[in-house]
Design a protein that fits this description.
By secondary structure, this protein is α+β, with helices and mostly antiparallel strands. The chain has helices at residues 2-22, 161-180, and strands at 29-35, 38-41, 47-54, 61-69, 74-79, 88-92, 95-103, 108-117, 121-126, 130-132, 135-138, 142-149. It has a 4-stranded antiparallel beta sheet with strand order 1-3-8-5, with no helix packed on it. A 3-stranded mixed beta sheet has the order 2-12-9, with no helix packed on it. A 3-stranded antiparallel beta sheet has the order 4-7-6, with no helix packed on it.
């Protein structure tokens, strides 16, 4: 009888503790955007790519890490003031990575990077999954930058004010002759 009571008591303890023993947090979320989302190629047009990581859990998550390799045609110019505290951020010409970051419960952080495009067309940039200690992987995050051909500013012929008047008079005269004929 004593063995049965101990077994029942042990079972109750296991059942009561099971949720905390086997509970795992929610995955971190990650978002990426380009502002503006359309830029000209070959000019001074730039965009800010921002990656934001959010911890949706009611507890702090450490060991947060992900990487981002730049696709062809997307070139970094400078890294802005990022809000992800501590950790290791590594930026290079082919991409960047962020590791060993800690986010408090419900907190988020972001990394802005000023960039420009070198090819015309849609440029899709996608990160790796974002990982953290004690939570399942989240992400990846993806955004599209629309790169368009630069307008040929300054290459079109221009007319002075007097030449525009002469041109307008020539068009009016041609129209008058056509109406009479």
């Amino acid at each position: 009888m004593l063995a049965l009571r101990r077994l029942v008591l042990l079972t109750l303890v296991i059942v009561a503790c099971a949720p905390s023993l086997f509970a795992q947090g929610l995955p971190l979320t990650m978002a990426k955007s380009f502002t503006p989302s359309t830029v000209s190629v070959g000019g001074t047009s730039t965009t800010t790519m921002t990656v934001t990581i959010t911890n949706p859990n009611g507890f702090s998550v450490s060991g947060i890490a992900f990487s981002d390799t730049y696709p062809a045609g997307l070139v970094p110019d400078s890294v802005g003031a990022y809000t992800c505290s501590a950790g290791n951020a590594t930026f290079n010409g082919s991409g960047w990575s962020l590791g060993n970051v800690t986010l408090g419960a419900g907190a988020s952080c972001s990394v802005p990077i000023l960039m420009h495009a070198t090819i015309v067309g849609p440029i899709t940039n996608t990160t790796s999954l974002v990982t953290g200690t004690g939570v399942p992987p989240g992400g990846p995050a993806s955004a599209i930058l629309n790169a368009v051909a630069a307008a040929a500013v300054g290459n079109a012929p221009t007319l002075s004010g007097w030449m525009l008047i002469v041109f307008a008079m020539a068009i009016a005269a041609a129209a008058a002759v056509r109406l009479r004929g």
